[in-house]
Specification:
38% helix; 13 helices; alpha+beta; 4-stranded mixed β-sheet; elongated
Length: 376
């Protein structure tokens, strides 16, 4: 019987194929890029990078180049989108980091998509819906946190909080260090009313509908209300699509305001101890590149799936066949091929390897296979 080609693929590869098909259903096209970019691009936008330790080298013409540590920056810089034509792309690329703790280089498989152009709440919904379906393709047990930088910017503007204080505030808010936040506000001579309002906003977290209602009660400006209306519109579309049940609203989720100025979100799956998916609206980054365009996207670091799938004890082979020096190779081959014809993944070894996971182990007796144990 002919074996389905996809049955021989690793789980990560099957997920990638399924997601590529999903993204193309929504009209996103495959984006391809080179491994190198001028270092200046990343040096000027280090705060945008997940890992700011960039691997560099000099080109033959003397230019300082970098192995790309991120895909979004290159797409944003080189996009063909304009006021009349949007660009929707997805990518599966390797990015490269220098890990200072280990002192070594790391190659990371990054999957993601970007939507750039004149966008609106429906455009944002599409990206969040694809983020949710991406998490669902990886694990049944997944959830997503959503926030809005515009809510925070409008609040701090309305309270006349100076720019120099905001990064420290966001650091406390993101870390949920509310006592430290209150001490910081008190030390900066922020009025008790403003300090209390900021503390209330930092505590807004939970079910989407209830948290949105609580956020509306402390909205003091049209900018805050506009941000909440956008969140509500996007959530309503997710609800209509049946994708809202695993979405929470958490205003402690904040990103660098030099780049992000709208919706932001993070995705999680059970079994991975940190966020797996990162995304947001980065119109401010586009303006840094001199492009008055909207942009939103997300990225998944596929290497993190190694942690998940190891924990789930996936197998490398359905059948591990052991043989010795006296084995009749032709008979061994016939028995192994018979199992492969049934769709099983078969590995043949003299001894059980330490790092191989298998469903069943067999010993080749000369004419037949004798089951000698199970691993998974």
């Amino acid at each position: 019987m002919e074996q389905d080609v996809t049955s021989a693929l690793r789980r990560e590869e099957k997920i990638t194929l399924a997601l590529r098909a999903l993204y193309e259903q929504y009209g996103f096209r495959k984006y391809r890029m080179g491994k190198f970019e001028e270092y200046e691009l990343y040096m000027e936008n280090k705060n945008f990078l997940k890992n700011p330790n960039i691997i560099t080298f000099h080109d033959l013409d003397g230019r300082l180049m970098a192995l790309k540590p991120d895909v979004t920056l290159s797409i944003a810089k080189n996009t063909r989108a304009n006021a009349h034509s949007s660009e929707k792309v997805y990518y599966l690329e390797n990015v490269y980091w220098l890990e200072k703790q280990s002192g070594g280089y790391k190659e990371v498989n990054q999957l993601g998509l970007e939507s750039i152009g004149r966008l609106d709440a429906f455009s944002f919904y599409e990206v969040l819906a694809l983020a949710q379906e991406t998490l669902a393709a990886i694990s049944d047990s997944h959830w997503m946190q959503v926030s809005h930088i515009g809510f925070w910017v409008a609040l701090l503007d309305g309270l006349s909080i100076e720019e120099g204080l905001r990064k420290e505030l966001f650091s406390c808010i993101h870390g949920k260090r509310l006592h430290e936040l209150k001490a910081l506000l008190e030390g900066a001579n922020v009025t008790p009313f403003a300090a209390e309002l900021i503390a209330q906003a930092a505590s807004l977290c939970g079910g989407f509908t209830d948290t949105l209602a609580a956020a509306r009660r402390i909205a003091i400006s049209n900018g805050m209300t506009d941000a909440l209306n956008e969140l509500e519109t996007v959530y309503g579309l997710l609800e209509q699509k049946g994708l809202s049940g695993r979405v929470t609203l958490d205003f402690s989720l904040v990103n660098d305001c030099d780049y992000y100025d709208g919706l932001i979100f993070q995705g999680y799956v059970e079994g991975v101890p940190r966020a797996l998916l990162f995304g947001g609206y980065y119109g401010r980054l586009m303006r840094k590149f001199g492009r008055n365009l909207d942009a939103i996207g997300f990225a998944v670091y596929m290497n993190e799936l190694d942690v998940l799938f190891r924990a789930q004890k996936g197998t490398d082979a359905d059948a591990l066949i052991l043989y010795d020096d006296a084995a009749d190779f032709k008979a061994l081959l016939a028995l192994a091929d018979a199992k492969r014809a049934e769709g099983q993944r078969v590995r043949i070894e003299r001894k059980i390897p330490e790092d191989v996971r298998f469903e069943k182990a067999y010993r080749f007796t000369g004419k037949d296979l004798e089951e000698v144990g199970k691993d998974a």
